[in-house]
Amino acid sequence: MKFSKEDLLALESQLSHPTGTKGISVAENMATSNLSMITTSFESLNIQDKETVLEIGHGNASHVQKVLQKVKGVSFTGLEISKTMHKEALKNIVSLKNDLELTFKLYNGVNFPFENNSFDKIASINTLYFWKQPKVILNELYRILKSKGKIALCYADKDFMETLPFVGSKFRLYDKEEILKLINSSPLQLASFKSFEETVKNKLGEIVQRNYNIIVLNK
């Protein structure tokens, strides 16, 4: 199937900020195609019982029970810029059958509405491209992370992303050198940098080899 320039621009916009019925559909696709990235990111945090966990850019939140099924008494907070995804998350969590304490909030994409030292673990998958002020966000992450807390940032390789026709000006892509420079400009400490490769169906329905990275940061 061929996609017009308008189709690709519309998809790019929805990926950065899902809106309306189309946004719901795109988010369902993302939840499926990104599931391994999501689960591997949460696994890298080694979440323990009764910890406080934040996910930035949770989408429709259909993955929450899966990634937290082995822990008990966890307080999970989801944070979104998309009102559509916020509403979808609130609908989806009704069916969860775990002893999770769940909260979902909206924010402006820069400033986090939390007190200092609020979370043991923080995850964000495929949001890094859309951070308008990445240095400010990293400082905010440091502020709200508890002492000895961990952050997992997951994103696809710059080389891979540049091959995708729907990736345009709304995306800020990073190679390893660029991301390490960004991290080094923050008060956070790099704990690990791991790369992965998988075969997936992309947002246009094509089978591709995706390379992605998970960075774990410590306070």
Automatic annotation (TrEMBL):
InterPro entries: Methyltransf_11 (IPR013216), SAM-dependent_MTases_sf (IPR029063). GO terms for molecular function: methyltransferase activity. Residues 54-152 form the Methyltransferase type domain. Signal peptide: none annotated. One of its GO terms (biological process) is methylation. Pfam families: Methyltransf_11 (PF08241). Keywords: Methyltransferase, Transferase. This is Methyltransferase domain-containing protein. It comes from Tenacibaculum polynesiense.
